[in-house]
Amino acid sequence: MQSLRDDVSCAEEEHQSRLDASLPGLSVHATFDINDDIAAPLILTRPRPKVAILREQRVNGQVEMAAAIDRAGFTAVDVHMSDILSGRTTLADF
Questions:
Q1: I need a surface site. Which of 54, 61, 73, 74 has the fewest CB within 10 A?
Q2: In degrees rounded to 5, what are phi and psi of residue 85?
Q3: pTM for this model (two decimals)
Q4: What DSSP string describes 27-66?
């Protein structure tokens, strides 16, 4: 497929490099322990600031964003744009 789309010689060279077990290719070598929760000491000693996760119809990703915000030590609050427009919520709270 790649040789049909790209330069044939480049595609073949890339394919041959994938077959060579001595080449690591694109790989990650973390210099830290990815299981360490480096935010834990900060989260436990400070109040968790509230962060508004703005949501609108046909927009995805708010669940993942809230999880990332929570993991970073904040309190994620789901805020729909209709809440702001109606006055039920104000961004001054965040």
A1: 61
A2: -65, -35
A3: 0.51
A4: ----SS-TT--TTHHHHHHS---EEEEEE-TT---HHHHH
